[in-house]
Amino acid sequence: MKRKIIKIDEEKCNGCGLCAEACHENAIGMIDGKAKLLRDDYCDGLGDCLPVCPTNAISFEEREAAAYDEAAVKANMEKAKQNSPCACPGSNAKTLTRVEAPCASSPTRDLNSQLRQWPVQIKLAPINAPYFDGAKLLIAADCTAYAYGNFHERFIKNHITLIGCPKLDEGDYSEKLTAILRENDIKSVTVVRMEVPCCGGMANAAIKALKDSDKMIPWQIVTISTEGEILD
What we know:
232 residues; four-stranded parallel beta sheet; alpha/beta; 22% helix
């Protein structure tokens, strides 16, 4: 049947995810940092997603599409609720403001977090965000923050942080990282990986992204041992 349905311009999409949150039918999903219409029969054509999009990436079009299926929508929403009970507002992009705290004399004082943005997972991070403008980018393997005790002060401080595990995460990071480097004013890239072989995927993805971005960006790779020492 021919009906009115949403259309998403991926070139304009900044990956903020506001449209996915606004869609009561879960017809929109975030895939590789971009909003996508998951299935035609999930979209009711009412357009709750249109007014929340900050880049006007969503519009209506009239085309051949499957009819809206309320039963399929309810089944999909129930499945999503069971599989991902905590996923939703926690993936919203936001900038975190850090204020330098005065030095304390107590050796047991809590150390301040140096994290400057959210989310930090490569898979969840938007391609475009204000905090990428002029950023020193840290791309770190998950385990490095556990292995190296002074990770916040040594690596995260004054950086925008992206983390992941090339062994456990599905897919390759290079495409997402390439888009981030290409579409933002990144000043430098620091890759922190573990010495274990599987962690080489993190460095390889970052190097490929740097090459594919067609930009001359200063970069370095730091390797952490399983004993928590910087090897190079």
